[in-house]
Amino acid sequence: MTTTGPAVRSTVHGYPRIGPDRELKRAEESYWKGAASAADLEKVAADLRLDTYARLRAAGIDDIPSNTFSYYDQVLDTAVLFGLVPARFEDPSTAADADGRLRRYFALARGVQGAPPLEMTKWFDTNYHYLVPELSPGVRPRVAGDKPVAEFREALEAGYRTRPVLVGPLTFLLLSKAADDAPEGWSPIELLDDLLDAYARVLADLRAAGAEQVQLDEPVLATDEGRAALAHLERAYSVLGGRADRPEIWVSTYFGSIGADALRVLKESPVEAVGLDFVTDTEGIADLTAVSGLGSTRLVAGVVEGRNVWRTDVPAAVATLGTLLGLADELTVSTSCSLLHVPIDLDAETSLAPELRAALAFAEQKTREVSLLGRVLSGEAEAGHAAAAPADAAFVDARVRARLAALGADAYERPQERGAPTDLPLTTTTIGSFPQTGELRRARAAHRRGELGEEEYKAVLRAEIDRVIALQEDIGLDVLVHGEPERNDMVQYFAEQLRGYATTENGWVQSYGSRCVRPPILFGDVSRPEPMTVEWITYAQSRTEKPVKGMLTGPVTMLAWSFVRTDQPLGDTARQVALALRDEVADLERAGIRHIQVDEAALRELLPLRQEKRREYLDWAVGSFRLATSGVSPSTTVHTHMCYSEFGLIVDGIEALDADVTSVEAARSRMELVADLGRRGYKRGIGPGVYDIHSPRVPSVAEIEASLRLAVSHIDAGGLWVNPDCGLKTRGYEEAEQALRNMVEAARRVRSGL
Predict the structure, then answer these.
(1) Does the domain made of 425-752 have the CATH classification 3.20.20.210?
(2) 694 has catalytic annotation
(3) What CATH architecture is 9-387?
(4) What is the DSSP string of 199-232?
């Protein structure tokens, strides 16, 4: 189709920032180790930014964003930009030069001895993590940096007039938390007027530097909390939009529709463009119709999926855009959200099956789809391909579907009368993984390349398990783990052994900071050809008289941390994964393993952003976990683990899992979930993480003891387990060992006083 109206432009909300070969990860970790200077790190960062601009221009993107780069996280960048840094990090002598500023910045994210880091949690319902700002009435927003302006000028000097992107003021404040010293009942939103003054200053500085447009991201409007903050939304954009010394303002929303009421507020505000997500749900067009369109306000239409890897159905997207052209005078084609959430380039993959590869698009390919759609709507090109189906007949397994159809209600229920998990209060354990040494990683890489034989590789793994078991016995842990030396990632490891999954060679995506993952692609019906973990868990159990936990990744997390097929409901896919895990659980139990942990780290992550959609999600999410675990005998203890999300919203769901022991992240959030569970009279076992493994600092015995005593004040000690808040894979042995010794000693002290 073509139009005779004004040219339709193209843009993206953001682009991956880690680099095509994870250059940012390597540069940051080298800097943290002292092997690279601040100047070395800044040079890598600048090169990555310029490479991104060049890629977007080459793809044909009209309006290129800037300030989407971050060394760690965009919310943290915003807090630093406006001087909203907790006092424990405010040492002016350490921030006087580039190295000092970087050290303070990374201290906020990773912590230093004597200064725990900011809390880290999930960015809405994605697997990306952000740092939670700590705000109080005593810390006033001010412009304390120049990152957006500096990166705009850098791009301009290189020949790119970009659109700077900032986290919007409403999203920033609603995602922040009140600091411990804030008065009871005080909310960060009370800083809105002061923060708007600071935003106005940045907007004025950007205009003075030559910026013509600025994008303010307000994804919080897709949540119930954001939809309830309409008065604050109106205030924010009437103030910012009413300034004469500003560029054009784009308010971008994503991760779902924002509702007609919020859309009406934005339409009536003095802003020039509004970005809407037309992929996540189908309500956006109805919202636009309800407000009689946007009129002269430009519509930035997110019609290319920014969070999954399937190709865009171009004819269908053109039809949607044609409808939108009747609801706005000016239109820009865009992605549904930032491309931060997908790998960079499909061309880097050489081993995917042709029929699967034909269905895929990574960030590089998606930018070309956006550009193509803009040119089609402007009459400069013809619509090309329709999307290949994520799954076709070759990916259907009739046996899997027949098994699921034959299940009765009893497949989801465990006996209520069970043995006690342990007879020891404050039982000590760990979450699962132990540090992965350079030697272990080199052995895995050599085995993958065919340079190390199967038996030689297994000998390396057995030696590492021996080391881990002996260390845990020496430390004095009560329930042991095998350390997971055979696993590259808690989802990828299983995806490589399940039918219906594919894995990539270079499909890296940032999870937080320098942490990158390669989400597998779930394209077809899922089944388990053979046992996946039994050999390693039973070997570990043979090396000790203490119980060893079997370690599996749960069905919801297998979906959340994968790119998942879209041709059937998520609940159906989750039940297929659960059935495969049920077989693994049964094999572990037959092998004599009496503690089996099925991690659902992402249970909260996939929770829909709006209350009205949560019941349906929790029904299938909880049901899939119970399907995976309900076949065990009453004497087997079922564990699960959850981390880095605000779990208070799903306490009912946690209870409904019917796990005997639930371990949770609690260190950075100061035992908030434990308090929630205590108020509800939670009776099952709970293992609140007593120290943060994502920080290199080693907590003292006294610090861990204080956390445990806080937990005991909420939950009966008989049901408390003692563990770190996550696996130890990312830590080194020296710090992990000392932290665990301190943890065991703290548990002994608290136990002795019961």
Answers:
(1) yes
(2) yes
(3) Alpha-Beta Barrel (3.20)
(4) HHHHHHHHHHHT--EEEEE-GGGGSHHHHT-HHH
